């Protein structure tokens, strides 16, 4: 039976790489699929992985109708055995409903990939709807790590190297960005709660306030 499957995880855990791997495996067996994405780091109409892999895709912008696009594609003589949708957290709930309709009415597998929560730990509307409708929700097993070495579970937004918890829900960026621009960092829950990024942790470690500075104590040693 065809399924709507939601692959979720933090940034930097290999979601886009898995999407490309699924495309490769199925196309190698003679199947044909349509690839959709939105706001990919490589630009419009691209699905890219941080490993350097990239392929063309259909840009599913605001107001895009997945179901109508598939019906038009099939009606024009095109073939589609499955659909892949990356960056699904950016989609509107009604677009997720369209993905579910593709599964139910066109009987195609749909594989959606996305982040579950935003930088404020709030569910993206698209991800929330996927959790509500998906036949399966798969949490990726390739763990992204916090700077402390613990499993990263939250996405932090940084501006000028400092973590922020206010602002628009959708601001396109990436991990490992220069500190002068909007960037993102994956953190464990403890350090996300404390707003302690890698840069903040380094600054705290170098601060004289946390080092022994009493000269008498030092001379007595």
UniProtKB/TrEMBL annotation:
Reactions catalysed: thymidine + ATP = dTMP + ADP + H(+)
Q: Does the keyword Metal-binding apply?
A: no
Molecular function (GO) terms for this protein are: thymidine kinase activity
UniProt signal peptide: none
Q: Which SUPFAM superfamilies match?
A: Glucocorticoid receptor-like (DNA-binding domain), P-loop containing nucleoside triphosphate hydrolases
- Coiled-coil blocks: none
| InterPro entries membership | P-loop_NTPase, Thymidine_kinase
Q: Which domain of life is it from?
A: Bacteria
Give the EC number(s) under which this enzyme is classified.
Answer: 2.7.1.21
Record's Pfam families? TK
Keywords annotated in UniProt:
ATP-binding, DNA synthesis, Kinase, Nucleotide-binding, Transferase
Can you tell me which family this protein belongs to?
Belongs to the thymidine kinase family.
Name by which UniProt lists this protein: Thymidine kinase
Q: Which organism is it from?
A: Streptomyces hesseae
């Amino acid at each position: 039976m065809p399924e709507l499957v939601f692959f979720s995880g933090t940034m930097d855990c290999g979601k886009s790489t898995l999407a490309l791997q699924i495309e490769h495996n199925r196309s190698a067996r003679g199947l044909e699929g349509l690839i959709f994405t939105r706001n990919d780091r490589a630009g419009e109409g691209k699905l890219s992985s941080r490993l350097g892999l990239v392929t063309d895709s259909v840009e599913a912008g605001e107001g895009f109708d997945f179901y109508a696009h598939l019906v038009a594609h099939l009606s024009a003589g095109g073939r589609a055995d499955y659909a892949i949708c990356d960056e699904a957290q950016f989609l509107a709930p009604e677009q997720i409903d369209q993905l579910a309709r593709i599964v139910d009415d066109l009987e195609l597998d749909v594989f959606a990939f996305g982040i579950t929560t935003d930088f404020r730990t709030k569910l993206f509307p698209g991800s929330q709807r996927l959790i509500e409708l998906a036949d399966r929700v798969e949490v990726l097993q390739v763990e992204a790590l916090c700077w402390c070495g613990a499993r990263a579970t939250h996405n932090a937004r940084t501006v000028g190297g400092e973590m922020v918890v206010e602002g628009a829900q959708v601001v396109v960026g990436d991990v490992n960005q220069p500190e002068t621009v909007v960037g993102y960092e994956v953190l464990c829950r403890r350090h996300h709660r404390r707003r302690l990024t890698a840069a903040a942790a380094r600054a705290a470690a170098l601060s004289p306030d946390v080092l022994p500075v009493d000269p008498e104590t030092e001379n007595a040693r």
